[in-house]
Description:
The protein has helices spanning about 1-5, 20-25, 30-50, 60-90, 90-95, 100-110, 115-145, 150-175, 180-185, 185-195, 200-205, 210-220, 230-245, 265-280, 285-290, 290-300, 305-330, 330-355, 370-385, 385-395, 400-430, 430-455. By secondary structure, the chain is mostly helical.
Amino acid sequence: MGANYLKLSNCLLNKRNRSQLFGTVIINIICISHGIGIGWLSPTLRKLQSTDTPLNIPISINEISWVDSALCLGSVTGNVFAGLLLNRIGSKMCLLLMAVPHTCLWLLVYFAKSVDYLIIGRYLAGITGGGIYLIHPLFISEISDAHIRGTLASMVMLSINIGILIGYILGTRLAYHLVPLIVVVCPICYFILVLLFIRDSPTHLIRKGKIMAAEQSFRYYKNIKGERDYLIKLAMVEFNYIKASLTNEDNVPHEVVLKDFFTREAIKGYGMAAVIIIANQFSALFVMINYMSDIFANSGSTMDPNTSTIIIGSVQILGAFVGTVLYDIFGRKALMVVSTGGVALSLAAFGFFTHFTGIYDFTAWSWVPVAIMAIDIFLGNIGLISCLFVLMVEMFPLKIRNTATSIAIVICSSLVFLILNIFPLCMAGWGLPATLWSCAAITAICFLCFLFFLRETKGKSMLEN
């Protein structure tokens, strides 16, 4: 029975899929490390504000806001640089370059004497994160088969969430200077493994006119060794189809012109990408993680912040894992509909509980906010979070995919920065209940858009428009 399972086309350990899985696992090492950097900061900020701070003096609230927002600014920078470099130097070189700013982050953390070190370090970490969110989904979509593409691409967010939980634990349990000494090993190992085992995608090599190298890359990722004639013939038919889609009769790559960005399919892609980005950001999923302590304090919860953080971190991993398992079974649309609908209801429920906490004594029910947030984060991660980058790549036509995806992710990262700054102002001006109800209403509208207009991309060939 086990041998028959390994022969299934959607089994990740199928002989044809092993190199694709191996490559995905390698590049996700930097995702885990990036997640550690995000999660580690949350419990560490309390240490930095105390009299026992490892810096020269405790940091202020204003300085904390700069440390938080530096990641978003770096992410936008990373998106832009990745978008500019990806088509020029290829995915392998871009993957290698991402290790550099992330290594610098941990060196700056270790040697930090003032908050300026941390602000610069977080900015550099954002550059790596911005690169991850663009390069990884595009690279995975170009090396993977259609029936496992969703599973492999969604491992990006699963890996980041695993890293975030590890970061929570390390920041809570270990001394400040010990963490960077341990974690700096991750980007170094990642760099070495990418250098040794990752090749540029066949699609990129064809676009550069390197047909022989593209064929070798294709065989490498499809794990075709050439021991059987029929496998070689099948591989060549598939490879020639890819080549024909990207080049003319003389094997000269097609040029992208301005009108390619204004086709019917491109405009449809822009519209749905806009809805996906709005749903992802106005669902307040990322904001709730960043302002978790303040939200719990306003909701009436009396649970220990560190315990709550680790619970939510574990739920993030569970949600991302469930999404990873289900993407190529139920498809993207079903998960996005369930995710947005569930998040809208959770936000509304959280708002109502917080509203009535100010009227009635809910001391005995202080666990409810953590439970509602756990449901919210779980449902958000099975679709809105993990599916974001999978769908973003699959929305756009082949010729403009890299450029359009890059622009969409830059807009998404910019919106993160805006929402992080607006959300506390809304909580102060409107109150937490009204802020959550507003997010719930926007998410509910996006739910209707997904229900009626989102096109299913499960099993879609990356050569289709």
